[in-house]
Write a structure and sequence with these properties.
single chain; about 100 residues
């Protein structure tokens, strides 16, 4: 029964977060748009603009093998933690069964 309450609490928290986001987001992005051709009561003057030339230089970043190495390390760590927790849980279950 305790697991059902935890799942229900998690789902309630998730639902509340989604509802709060849906209610608050439209107000945060609300803007007043002037009618076409006007800006603050004055007609918009079209000023010709020159496109800006940007020169980007990629100088960093991680190599593919480094990313793979991090992913493999994280997977091994997660598997190790899962095995250790499973063994600890089984040992505790056996201790409780032996005491009863």
């Amino acid at each position: 029964m305790n697991h059902i309450r935890r799942i229900a609490a998690a789902l309630t928290a998730l639902t509340a977060t989604l509802v709060a986001t849906a209610v608050a987001a439209p107000a945060a992005f609300a803007t007043q748009v002037p009618p076409p051709g006007q800006l603050g009561g004055h007609p918009v003057k079209h000023i010709p603009t020159v496109p800006v030339q940007t020169h980007t230089m990629v100088a960093g970043g991680m190599r593919g093998w480094q990313i793979v190495l991090i992913v493999v390390g994280a997977a091994l760590l997660a598997a190790t933690v899962a095995v250790l927790l499973g063994r600890a849980r089984a040992a505790r279950r056996d201790a409780i069964a032996a005491a009863a």
